[in-house]
Amino acid sequence: MNTIQTSETSNTTQVNKLVYTAKAHTTGGRDGGASLSSDGRLAVKLSIPGGPGTGTNPEQLFAAGWSACFIGAMKIAARRFRIQLPPDVAVDAEVDLCLADHAYFLQARLKVSLPGLDIVTAQELAVAAHQTCPYSKATRGNINVEISIV
After folding, report:
1. Cβ distance 117 to 86 under 8 Å?
2. SS (H, E, C) 47-91
3. What is the pLDDT of residues 87-146, one digit of tens each?
C-alpha cells in the first residue's frame, strides 16, 4: 500500500490514547454506491442528495454523526457543570452542500433542544459542547456553523 503524506492538518495535538478507529469500505461513491463498516453494523446504500434512489448521502451521515457526538459532548459538559441533562435532549443537525465558483463546500446548523433548562444554562452547555465535540473541532474555522437553542 502506498501512503500519500499530507501536511494539511492543523491538529498538532499529541495522541496519548487512541480510543477508537472507525473503518468503512465504500464502493461506487454517492451515485448508487454503498458503504459497509468493518464490523458490519453500518451498511448503507448511497444516492445523490435530492436525486432518485433509496440510499442516504454523505451529508446525512455527517449530520447524524455530528448531532449524536454533540449530545455526548453536552452530557460531559452537564456532568462538569453538575447539571441534570433532560432525558429528551435532542439536536437537529442540518448540513448544506453548497456550490460557489465551481467548488463544493459545506455549511451547517445545529438546533439544540434542552427542554426544561433555562436559556442561559442551555447556551452554556451548547458552547461547552461545541468546544469539546470532535466534529465541532474538525469543522472549526473550515465551514460556517450556526448553533441555536430551540
Report:
1. yes
2. CCCCCCCCCECHHHHHHHHHHHHHHHHHHHHHHHHCCCCCCCCEE
3. 999 999 999 999 999 999 999 999 999 999 999 999 999 999 999 999 999 999 999 999
Residue with cell 456532568: 79
The single-letter code of the amino acid at 74 is: M
Among residues 91, 96, 81, 138, the alpha carbon closest in space to that of 111 is found at 91
DSSP-H helix ranges across 92-141 = 119-132, 134-139
Reading the block at residue 13, the C-alpha cell is: 495535538
**Contact call for residues 148 and 110 (beta carbons, < 8 A):** yes
The residues pairing with 93 across neighbouring beta strands, listed in sequence order, are: 110
Q: How many CB atoms lie within 10 A of CB 52?
A: 8
Question: Quick check: 104 and 45 in contact, CB under 8 A?
Answer: no
SS3 content of the chain, % helix, strand, coil (to 5): 30, 25, 45
Rounded to two decimals, the pTM is 0.89
Nearest by Cα to 91 from 116, 118, 117, 109: 109
